[in-house]
């Protein structure tokens, strides 16, 4: 069971954070965690690839009508014009702002739909301590209530995850991951990263109430420029993957869904299904 709470940070009138039980995540509302790291799942899949070449740090040039397809095969080029080979299918999973540029002059039949979803940024603050004893009281196993995930109210912060509480993560040094609110992140997306880190640290200190003896010893901040798909109202539907069967091109990615990790899995499954359907 994962214990989820709502946390309201301390302020001038309130000397300590307020924590209230919100819900439990269980097998009915399962969340999936890779071990030992979140990248482990992808690395395990990559290790099983056969007859496959993976090219890293390669910028693929935008698709062009003049270098289009032959018998539904597509030749891709890098940014210097060097051919990367001929492919039966092209699957584009970059954020939609970048997908627009890659597909702009290609004749992609669903080009207009790529622009429909709006995306917002997310800043992530990662904090670590050298030992359990150095944790602030609110993060210790003796805290009341005991919690694993906190939704934060009245703050630039959105959610706090206690990393060493995750399954098979007990050998980790004590650490937490904090996601800032998407609207706050978007507003500050082009700010200096050190300035953003200081603002988030101040908000985290209000939420977790550490002092000089319990302050984190490891601090890192990361910006995801394209992190969450914005739904303007409850009637907005997920875009879903965009398939051009005439060229055998697919534009996909988590932004085609809700912009979260669950959408990564769902859009990947839909992409595979779209390709295999043409083989039957």
Characteristics of this structure?
6 helices, alpha+beta, 21% helix, seven-stranded mixed sheet, Polyamine Oxidase, Chain A, domain 2, FAD/NAD(P)-binding domain, 280 residues
Provide an overview of this structure.
This protein has 280 residues and is of the alpha+beta class. The protein folds into two domains: 2-31 and 122-230, Alpha-Beta Complex (Polyamine Oxidase, Chain A, domain 2); 58-117 and 239-277, 3-Layer(bba) Sandwich (FAD/NAD(P)-binding domain), CATH 3.50.50. It is 21% helix and 27% strand. The chain contains six helices and 13 strands. The strands form three sheets. The chain has a seven-stranded mixed sheet with strand order 2-1-8-9-10-7-11. The chain has a three-stranded antiparallel sheet with strand order 3-4-5, with no helix packed on it. A three-stranded mixed sheet has the order 6-13-12, with no helix packed on it. Strand 4 (73-77) and strand 5 (83-87) form a beta hairpin. 23% of the residues are buried. The mean pLDDT is 89.
Average pLDDT, all residues: 89
Shape: elongated
Element-level helix/strand string: EEHEEEEHHEEEEHHEEEH
Distance between the termini: 42 Å
What are the low-pLDDT stretches, counting only 5+ consecutive residues below 50?
Answer: none
Q: In which range does the helix fraction lie? A: 10-25%
Number of strands: 13
Roughly how many Å is the radius of gyration? Answer: 22 Å
What share of residues are in beta strands?
25-35%
CATH class of the largest domain: Alpha Beta
Largest sheet: 7 strands, mixed
Structural class: alpha+beta
Major β-sheet strand ordering:
2-1-8-9-10-7-11
Q: Assign the CATH topology of the largest domain.
A: Polyamine Oxidase, Chain A, domain 2
* Domains, number: 2
Number of helices: 6
CATH architecture assignment of the largest domain: Alpha-Beta Complex
């Amino acid at each position: 069971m994962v214990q989820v709470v709502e946390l309201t940070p301390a302020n001038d009138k309130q000397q300590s954070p307020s924590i209230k039980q919100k819900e439990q995540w269980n097998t009915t509302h399962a969340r999936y965690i890779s071990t030992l790291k979140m990248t482990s799942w992808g690395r395990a899949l990559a290790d099983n690839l056969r007859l496959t070449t993976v090219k890293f740090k390669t910028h693929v040039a935008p698709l062009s009508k003049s270098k289009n397809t032959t018998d539904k095969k597509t030749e891709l080029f890098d940014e210097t014009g060097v051919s990367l080979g001929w492919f039966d299918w092209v699957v584009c999973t970059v954020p939609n702002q970048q997908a627009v540029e890659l597909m702009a002059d290609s004749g992609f039949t669903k080009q207009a739909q790529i622009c429909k979803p709006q995306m917002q940024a997310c800043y992530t603050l990662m904090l670590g301590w050298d030992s359990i004893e150095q944790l602030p009281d609110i993060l210790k196993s003796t805290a009341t209530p005991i919690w694993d995930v906190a939704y934060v109210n009245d703050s630039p912060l959105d959610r706090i995850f206690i990393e060493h509480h995750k399954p098979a993560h007990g050998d980790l040094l004590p650490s937490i991951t904090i996601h800032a609110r998407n609207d706050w992140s978007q507003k500050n997306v082009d700010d200096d990263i050190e300035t953003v880190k200081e603002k988030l640290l101040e908000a985290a200190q209000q939420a977790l109430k550490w002092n000089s003896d319990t302050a984190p010893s490891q601090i890192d901040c990361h910006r995801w420029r394209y992190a969450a798909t914005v739904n303007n109202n409850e009637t907005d539907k997920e875009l879903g993957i965009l398939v051009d069967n005439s060229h055998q091109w697919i534009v996909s990615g988590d932004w085609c869904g809700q912009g979260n990790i669950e959408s990564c899995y769902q859009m990947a499954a839909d992409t595979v299904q779209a390709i295999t359907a043409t083989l039957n």
